[in-house]
Specification:
Blueprint lengths: L10 E4 L3 H11 L4 E7 L11 E8 L2 E7 L12 E5 L3 H12 L3 E7 L6 E6 L5 E6 L5
Parallel strand pairs: 1-4, 5-8
Antiparallel strand pairs: 2-3, 3-4, 6-7, 7-8
Length: 137
């Protein structure tokens, strides 16, 4: 059987804050960068200078995003970005940064399935589940 050329990439739709979100995420994670960005011009349909389409990478995983020109829905915690952290310092740092200006769904703690876990919606509405593997204390 031939190898598939298919790629599945998370796609995030922001409302005018895609560049701010990308810059924030890239500042938090290792091996992270903005790969490419195209912007709306004066003829729209989005506001001039906002993100028409972008690709960014976090920990070697590509994401796509845009600034939507008007939709009546947002992000939901029904789909989260799951991050397996390498240390307690890392999970604490990421949780604090992602929770700032957002909302805590499950505060950092021990829930019986990992050493430490937390769930947060960030300031852009994107949902993140952070876990520190290992036995709960």
């Amino acid at each position: 059987m031939a190898a598939s050329a298919q790629r599945i990439t998370p796609f995030l739709m922001f409302e005018g804050r895609a560049q701010e979100a990308m810059d924030f995420y890239v500042s938090l994670f290792d091996d992270a960068k903005v790969v490419r960005v195209t912007r709306y011009g004066p003829d729209g349909p989005g506001a001039e200078g906002t993100v028409r389409h972008a690709v960014f990478s976090l920990a070697g995983r590509d994401f796509q995003c845009i600034d939507s020109a008007g939709h009546d829905f947002g992000f939901t915690p029904a789909l989260s970005l799951a991050v397996e952290c390498g240390s307690e310092e890392e999970i604490d740092r990421l949780y604090a940064a992602l929770a700032e200006g957002g909302s805590e769904l499950m505060p950092l703690g021990s829930y019986g399935f990992s050493a430490k876990f937390g769930w947060v919606n960030d300031r852009f509405g994107v949902s993140w589940q952070l876990t520190l593997p290992g036995e709960p204390s």
